[in-house]
Structures are given as C-alpha cells and as structure tokens.
Specification:
175 residues, alpha/beta, Rossmann fold, 5-stranded parallel beta sheet, 8 helices, globular
Amino acid sequence: MTKSLILMGYMGCGKSALGNKLAQANSLSFIDLDHYIESQEKTTISMIFEEYGELYFRKKERFYLEKLLSEDAKSIIALGGGTPCYFDNIDYINKKKGINTLYLKTTPKELVRRLFEQKDHRPMITHLETKEELEEFIAKHLFERMPYYIKARHHLLTDGQSVEDLALQVEMLLT
C-alpha cells in the first residue's frame, strides 16, 4: 500500500475489522475516528451527543479528522458512518494527497444480519425493536448517505465476504 487508506461506510459494514486486518498486514497503525475522538475528549460519543448535541459533535469530528490528516504518518483510518456526510468532509478527504478512499458497500439486509444482535451496544439503533424496523431505518440512512459514500475513489461490496477475502481484494485494488 503506497498511501494512507480511509475506510467509509455504514455501521456494521466492516470498517474496523478490515482496517485492523489491513493495518497488521502492512505494518501500519489503525485509527478508528470515533475511538480517537473519545480518547481525545475523554468521554463517549453518546455522551457528547447527549450533552452538547450533534452539531457540536460534528464540529469536533471535523477538527479531529483534520488533525489526523495533517500528520504525515501512513495509516488506515476508519471513519464514523456519518463522517463523510457532514460539512465538505468527503471532498476535503479526497483533495488530500497521499490518501485513498474506500467505500465498503453493504446491503441493508446484510447490515441487519450483522447489527441486530448488537443493537443494544449501538446508540443510534437501540430503540428499534424488530429486524423490519432496523432494515427500514438502515435503508433510509443509506439512501441519504449514498451521494457522499459514492464519492470514495474505490468501492467494494462486502456482502457474504470474509475479512480475509476483503483484505486480499483491497490489496489487489490498491497495488
């Protein structure tokens, strides 16, 4: 891999799993933007939303995104699901030299399969009771976010694929 790689896509698409795998295989650091924000702010994303609201969080998210991308260290960075969709984040990222962007495309049905059992640990979807409600929620969000996600330079369908298979595809795509 000759450049840093930014992974984007909806929650549950595999950004963290794939990012960790690629980072290990290429001796690079892996940074999950949400975890990075939490460590810098010394609180959880949920608490930031609860105490200060989404706009405050999105401004902090942009601040830390700029901070990470201003460092010259080559790394694998997983964005939060909404990160590319706010301000001009996706255009800002795409203009940066030395960075590749990859959209991990996953269908709503596959996302429901991956997320339903862990929904209690995902604040955005804890209120959804059934798989049908979750699928409708995800489909609506994906529809809204698609114009941003598709601006990534590369796209990869994740449905039914192992992390190992995806890592091999990414390596071939980016070499």
